[in-house]
Amino acid sequence: MRQYGLAVWIIIVWVTISILGPFLATESHTIQLQVILNGPDMHNWFGYDDLGRSVFHRLLAGSLTSCIVAFTVIAISVTFGTILGTISAYLGGVVDLIVVRLIDIFLAFPGILLAIALAGILGPGIDNVVIALSVVGWVGFARLARAQTLSLKHREHVVAARALGTRKRIIILRHLIPLISAPLLIEATFGIAAVIIAEAGLSFLGLGVQAPDASWGSMIRDGARYMLVAPHLVIIPGAALMIVVLSVNLLGDRLRDRLDVKTDNMEQD
Asked: For the chain, what are the domain ranges?
């Protein structure tokens, strides 16, 4: 139980730091040649990078990047995937067949490789990273929304609403989507962790945020050249990435335990 509480606090700190990042990371671009590759000390616990910039302030700036990309991509993916999957399952027929085949096509390619290809075509930059990851990310939510809708569209309240002449749009928005929100919320939580790693991976490959802006992935890439003389340049952003992703996954596990009705019923039986 304590690990979940700690995970929640870490996520709160991460989001808070991301929001306050522009005001806190005031020296993320400041170059100090006299402290190039200096390790952690009493004045700067995280040390300096290959240009003499504060790793601490770069870490704060990178936190903002990961937070913006993660929540933007998830918001787009959840919205588009949920609407498409729900409409597909509810209407059925040719519409459902087309959507299923479209999902199968996207699933035929490894998600991260497709994101790399799209980011390479669109070019580097945070906007293009969001577009590339959103194009890949909606598929899982569409599959989940479709599966959940197929199991719910024959429920009594949905049949009654249809018999009363309720419009399909109202049935989807009021009778179906609220009932499938719990599994979608759980999927979105795990999706945030996946997007954080994907953004760091794209930045590591040079397809994400460009200098002088900071990203945890680009910090690890730049620091990898100095692993033997300045290992803190890789260890510190790598540890930050691991802690945030682990915390988000733990929160997802907790939400799944609390919101998974089927699991609760099986345990009670």
From this structure: 2-8+44-261
Over residues 156-205, the pLDDT tens digits come to: 888 888 888 878 888 888 888 888 888 999 999 999 999 999 999 998 98
Q: Which two tokens stand for residue 193?
A: 């962790």
Residues in a beta bridge with 161: none
Tokens of 126: 């945070």
Spatial separation of the C-alpha atoms in residues 91 and 73, rounded to whole Å: 27
- Structure-token pair, residue 88: 């597909």
Backbone angles phi, psi at 130, to 5 degrees: -60, -45
CATH 3.40.50.1000 correct for 2-8+44-261: no
pLDDT per residue as tens digits for the range 52-81: 888 988 999 889 889 999 999 999 999 999
108 DSSP 8-state letter = T
* Whole-angstrom distance, CA of residue 100 vs CA of residue 74: 21
Is residue 214 helix, strand or coil?
coil
- Rounded to an integer, what distance in angstroms lies between the CA atom of residue 219 and that of residue 230? 12
Token representation of residue 224 = 């990898």
DSSP assignment of 14-62, as one string? HHHHHHHHHHH-TTTT---GGGTT----SS-TT-B-TTS-BHHHHHHHH
Q: In whole angstroms, what separates CA 167 from the centre of its chain?
A: 34
pTM for this predicted structure: 0.87
* Burial class of residue 122 in the structure, from the number of CB atoms within 10 Å of its CB (0-12 exposed, 13-18 middle, 19+ buried): middle
48 beta partners = 54
Straight-line distance from the first to the last Cα atom of the chain, in angstroms, rounded to the nearest whole number: 24
